[in-house]
Amino acid sequence: MCMDDQFLSRLFDEDEQQLAIQAQLNYDQVISEATKKSESFINRFRSFGYIIISLRRLISLIMTVVILYLSYPVVMNILSPNQQMNASFHPFRIVNTYGAFGSVTKVRNEVILQGTDAVRLDEKVVWRDFEFACKPGDINR
Question: Considering the entire predicted model, what is its pTM?
């Protein structure tokens, strides 16, 4: 026995069949409208996402231009023979010079810690240097 629409239509009178057809048409219309609304929402969401991405890119570009503009005096100072160490060139202090290596000399004085196991201290005592892992020292250690 096949229970298709034609068979099932025999179970209902004509008014009920018209109601079923109208319900099917209404269902199709509701689905079509919901699909259009969801597509509209998705398109609005995509355009909103595009606006956000464009805004972020614009802000990044503006910040890059500002940093480059503010960096010009700093770069000129670094290239100058009369550098100002640890100087700031703008009130916002976004970019500045860092003078950690401005006064490196060829001579390096170091404190060397030494210790011994001897109980009595005399001329025969052997002293050993203590090396620190983070301090410059013997290059062969």
Answer: 0.40
